Each structure stands twice: as C-alpha cells, then as structure tokens.
Amino acid sequence: MATLEIDRLNKTYGTVRALRDMSFTVGAGEIFGFVGSNGAGKTTTMRIALGVLAPDSGEVRWDGRPLDLAMRRRIGYMPEERGLYPKMKVGDQLVYLARLHGLGTVAARTAMEHWTQVLGIDARRGDEVQKLSLGNQQRVQLAAALVHDPDILVLDEPFSGLDPVAVDVMSGVLRDRAAAGVPVVFSSHQLDLVERLCDRVGIVKAGEMVEVGGIEELRATQRPQWVVDAPAAPPGWASELSGVRVLRYDGARTFLEVDSPQDGAEQAVLRAALATGPVREFTPQRPSLTELFRHVVSSDEAPAPDSTTGSRTTPSTRQEASA
Ligand SMILES: Nc1ncnc2c1ncn2[C@@H]1O[C@H](COP(=O)(O)OP(=O)(O)OP(=O)(O)O)[C@@H](O)[C@H]1O
User: Fold this and answer.
1) What are the residue boundaries of the ABC transporter domain, all occurrences included (predicted)?
2) Using CA positions, which residue lies closest to atom 2 of ligand 1?
3) Which residues pair with 285 in a beta bridge?
4) What's the rounded Cα separation, in Å, for the pair 238 and 180?
5) Which of 35, 43, 210 to mutate to test the pocket of ligand 1 (most atoms within 8 A of CB)?
6) Does this model's pTM top 0.90?
7) What is this model's ipTM?
8) Which of 65, 189, 254, 272 has its CA at a distance of 20 to 30 angstroms from the CA of residue 306?
9) H-assigned helices in 207-250
10) Domains, the chain, ranges and CATH?
C-alpha cells in the first residue's frame, strides 16, 4: 500500500477562497483526522481527492502518481451529504454499489453480507433505507464505502449523529482497515474521538493547513501547563510570578502555563505556592486536542466546535472560508 498525497490544492468558489495551498499526506495504515471550524475547507478537500470536484491548482497523488479514474474507483468515500437511494433496500443497494465498483455478482453479494454483519445491520438488509434510523443509515453509508474493499478511505464526518455503540463499531472498522494497510482520512468535530483514534491530525483554518502532526507532537508545541491546589493562597497569588501566565483560578486550584520547565519556572511556582501554606496538588496538565484546537483556531473569530457532540452542516448554515 502507498501514501496518499494532497499537494498544494487551491480552490475558489466565486469570491470565496475555500482552499489555499492545502497539503498533507496520509501513509499506508495511518488514520488521519481532519479537523477545522465549519467552512474551513475539509469537504472541499475530500471532494477534490475523490475527483468529483476539480481544484484550481494542485494535485492529489497516490503512490507518487496523480490519481486517475481507475484509482479513484479504489477509494471508499462517505460523503457529508450522504448519498443513498432512500427507496432501495439496504442489501440491494450495497450489492448494486459494489457492482458499480467492478465486483462480480457473487463477490458483491458476499461483500454486502460481510459488511452488513460487521456493522450490525444484517437484520435490515430487506428494509428500504428510508425506513432506517439516521444512525443505521449511516452504518449503511459506511458499508457502501467499504463494500468494494477500497485501497483508500475518505470519510466526511462519519461519526456525526452516531450513538456510543455505533461510534465503537465505526472506530473498530476504521482501526481494522488501517491495520490492513489502508490509509484512512476522516473529518470530524468530535475532537475527543479524533484524539483517541488518529495517528496524526491536521488542523485546518480558512482553507489552510495550520498544524499537522501526532497528538503528542502537537502538544509539545504548547507551553507546559500546571494545576496547583493551594487552599491557603490569597486571591491572585500567582499573577505576578515571572515566566508564568495564569489561565484561571478555580476555588483553591490555579491553572497556569509556565515558560519552560527547563528554566525551573515551575519549581518557582511550587515554592511560591508553599510559601502560602499547604499544597495539596501540583500536577502537569496535558492539553486535550480540544484545547489545542481552540488555541490554533481561536486566534480569530472562528467558533470552536463542541468536542462531545457531532455537528452537521447544510449549505445554508455554512460560514465563509474567510470567517
Ligand atoms: N458549492 C459551493 N459553492 C460556493 N461556496 C461553497 C461551495 N461549497 C463550499 N463552499 C464554501 O467553501 C468554503 C469551504 O467549505 P467546506 O464545505 O469545504 O468546509 P468544511 O470544512 O467541510 O465545513 P463543515 O465543517 O461545515 O462541513 C466555505 O466557505 C463554503 O461556504
């Protein structure tokens, strides 16, 4: 298996610059989380990767070669707007889609049976898609992305609206496909999930990739944070300490950033805290992906997404890329 390369994609819709030199790579067997505010350019990037949208400039490569039509058929894609035939039965639909991707009748039926079982919708094979709950429709949509045993998986918000059990099923499938060597890229606003699941993360802002790396790598770019529990400390006790920025006071607990632990700034904080009385806790904090995201994106007006609930957008709720 090879690497998927997204190389300096630019795309403008009328006056909206949706992508500016968007670049990243997803290696074989890697799960890549694509995160960014509403309207940041994730769907546009994915649609270009699939070939349903042409970039103004830039290239998508697979194994070092520009993606051609044959290769694009080897992508398993889950579109944000979903794309199932509502009146068609689940099983018939999956067989039909597998056939469209070149599988023979028997192989298509076997694949349909396999994926409906893995995704827990085997009992619904004979039902029209429109009669399924939204979460189950989403499982069918994932089955549709997988039914032709794709070499690359590109999934636009696959977790939005799923219950916790379905999230686990979906996560397990993505891990399995990655373990089989498939590069997996998915967008999500559920940052806790992205943090749990992804080998690497790309944070997009206004059409540009602004941070990319493993979660630990991204954390290392942040200033170290500490929590100090000093019940006798007077209000504002840490505000004047040098090399320290207080993030917030929360009862007896103080959350702060220090310039660098190598400078011993955190030891000075501890000494200052002890000078006020007992210290019950003095602990380094690891910023979550949500905090990293807020830090990267919140330098302007773009709202950070809720980390625990999925969000779905419609064209009417989109924000402009420059927002
Ligand atoms: N067909 C279109 N015509 C005009 N503008 C568009 C079109 N599709 C997207 N845009 C604009 O391009 C920008 C990027 O949109 P895109 O859908 O790629 O963002 P996104 O990161 O997927 O957002 P979300 O998280 O809300 O799904 C937005 O400003 C959006 O309004």
Assistant:
1) 4-231
2) 13
3) 225
4) 51
5) 43
6) no
7) 0.96
8) 254
9) 215-220
10) 4-219 (3.40.50.300), 223-285 (3.30.70)
The residue whose CA has the least distance to atom 7 of ligand 1 is 13
- What the block records as the tokens of 318 is 């989109």
Q: Nearest C-alpha to atom 24 of ligand 1 is from which residue?
A: 38
Measured distance CA(60)–CA(201) in Å, rounded = 18
Cα–ligand 1 centroid distance for 18 (angstroms) = 7
- CB-based pocket (< 6 A), ligand 1: 13, 16, 18, 36, 38-44, 80, 313, 318, 320-321
* Identity of the amino acid at 308: T
Contact (Cβ atoms closer than 8 angstroms) between residue 153 and residue 174: yes
**Ligand 1 nearest atom to the CA of residue 315, by list position:** 31
Task: List, in sequence order, every beta strand (DSSP E) within 27-142.
Answer: 31-36, 57-62, 65-66, 75-78
| CB-based contact 78:97 (threshold 8 Å) | no
* CA 88 to chain CA centroid, nearest Å: 30
Query: Which residue from 312, 277, 310 is spatially nearest to 162, judged by alpha carbons?
Result: 310
pLDDT per residue as tens digits for the range 28-75: 999 999 999 899 999 999 999 998 899 999 999 999 999 998 888 899
The DSSP symbol for 89 reads B
